[in-house]
Amino acid sequence: MIQSVDDLYDRLKSVKVGSQTCVFTREKCEEMWPVIQDINRIKKEKNALILAHSYVSPELLLSVADFTGDSYELSRKARESDADIIVFCAVKFMAETAKLLNPTKRVFIPTSLNGCTLADSITGADVRKLRQQYPDFAFVCYINTTMEVKAECDVCVTSSNVYRIIEQIPNQNIYFLPDKLMAQNIIEHAKVHYPNKVIKYWDGACYVHEDYDADMVRYLKSEYDSLAVLAHPECSPEVVAVADFVGSTSQMLQHVKQTDASAYFMLTECGLTSRIQLEMPDKKFVGTCTMCRYMKSNSLDKVLQTLTTLPSQYEIQLSPDVQQKALKCINEMFAY
Ligand code: 13P
Ligand code: SF4
């Protein structure tokens, strides 16, 4: 845990992802310090847990988060937690999953800009219509979906287990939603590992990952000797094809930890790069800084306000009729 302003500044100055929001001066750290102290004090008083996705701003990860991870790890932490309150610094579908897995807890998401272009691309009614259209398909949803959508699906997957779970599903016919690029990556993987499966998919995309371009990757590879390119499976198959490693955000982090490339190009939201710069300051990175507006709208001030007043507009409420069905879909993932 960070003990002083000097300590905070010392760590944060190693973050260099190219965005002005991630430039940390000593003055900025002095401004943040009282807020950090208040958050950590109230957290103890109220027996609260702060979970944070790796994409949120580095000052949150470093100074107030109790656990940082990918969607799968965060949902496991939420399931195991005995805190009374969970403040989930991420996006709404992740906080909904936490509430579903630990329904007696009060779960808050400290921002109203808490959407996700994938989760917002499809509704429960859309899935009901698709099920009528494809009655003999198993419906597999990415965790980046709302509770209503999960309630209509058979099994949920995350970027860390998607290929493995789809391989194990006994049904030959799979409808994957909502990410068309991840679905196209699954189809490429299936050609080699499970060629008999028929895979159809919905037309959603993540606005951060769909913009990466294979030509840019090839150009950077030609400019930097032994550059390691790591891609998230929400990138296009063309990008995935030129990457050296594909995995969830935590799997990407582990890959950087376990390898020794001269530099890394991380094809995912730049929060992951800033997290690695905090944890492994010797690693070198090249490439762009692309931000998820939803993840980056979590802030120290909003976390403090949430912990202090427990505002109803930030609290996750699940409707009882979808709760049971959505839980079945998520538990199916844990069973796999
Ligand atoms: P991870 O589960 O890999 O952290 O991905 C979540 C996400 O939203 C990626 O854009
Ligand atoms: Fe959604 Fe993309 Fe943001 Fe991840 S990065 S939360 S998929 S909009």
Q: Mind explaining what this structure looks like?
A:
It is a single chain. This protein is α/β, with parallel strands linked by helices. 45% of the residues lie in helices and 14% in strands. The chain has helices at 5-12, 26-45, 58-63, 71-80, 92-101, 124-133, 147-151, 162-168, 180-193, 214-223, 237-242, 249-258, 270-279, 300-309, 320-335; strands at residues 48-53, 67-69, 85-89, 106-108, 138-142, 155-157, 173-177, 198-201, 227-231, 245-246, 263-267. The strands form three sheets. The protein has a four-stranded parallel β-sheet with strand order 2-1-3-4, sandwiched between helices. β1 (48-53), α3 (58-63) and β2 (67-69) form a beta-alpha-beta unit. Iron/sulfur cluster (SF4) binds next to loops. Iron/sulfur cluster is lined by residues 91, 116-118, 144, 206-208, 234, 269, 292, 294-295.
Helix proportion: 40-55%
Q: Could you tell me the radius of gyration in angstroms?
A: 20 Å
The major beta sheet can be summarized as: 4 strands, parallel
Structure classification: alpha/beta
How many helical stretches? 15
Number of strands: 11
Strand order of the largest sheet: 2-1-3-4
Label the overall shape.
globular
Element string (H = helix, E = strand): HHEHEHEHEHEHEHEHEHEHEHEHHH
Distance between the termini: 35 Å
Q: What is the multimeric organization of the chains shown?
A: single chain
Show the helix and strand layout.
Elements: H1 5-12, H2 26-45, E1 48-53, H3 58-63, E2 67-69, H4 71-80, E3 85-89, H5 92-101, E4 106-108, H6 124-133, E5 138-142, H7 147-151, E6 155-157, H8 162-168, E7 173-177, H9 180-193, E8 198-201, H10 214-223, E9 227-231, H11 237-242, E10 245-246, H12 249-258, E11 263-267, H13 270-279, H14 300-309, H15 320-335
Bound molecules: 1,3-dihydroxyacetonephosphate and iron/sulfur cluster (SF4).
Residues 70-71, 144, 158-159, 206, 232, 234, 248-249 line the site of 1,3-dihydroxyacetonephosphate.
